[in-house]
Fold p-loop containing nucleoside triphosphate hydrolase.
Amino acid sequence: MRALAAAYVKLWSDIFAARHDRPRLLKLLREATARFVAITDAPGNCFVGELLEIYPDAEVVCVRRDRATWWKSWESVTQQAGQGFLNWFLAPVPGKRWYPKLVTQFLEQEGKWGPMTESKCPEADGRTQ
């Protein structure tokens, strides 16, 4: 089971790496979401458009959070994931060894959305109602 968890987290890292290769990206997203009926939060939320292309009848639900609370929780994740020692510390832990890279890849999406800051809380960007 641990190997399966590690492989699944790595699969999401592979998905981020394929973000500029649409056919491969869609193939990997299909693989990652096969046998699921729902997906929540990161990293899937980085690929809403692609997931809607794969599953055109899907419903997207956006939950709003208090902006300050959201940023407080997210900011600590980004700061900790960027620490070099975390890569060494988590290397022997199945599934978790990919976590720092996955968060870094998530942050690289800033080119798509702009920097992740408190002002980027979904309610502030006009995409939610």
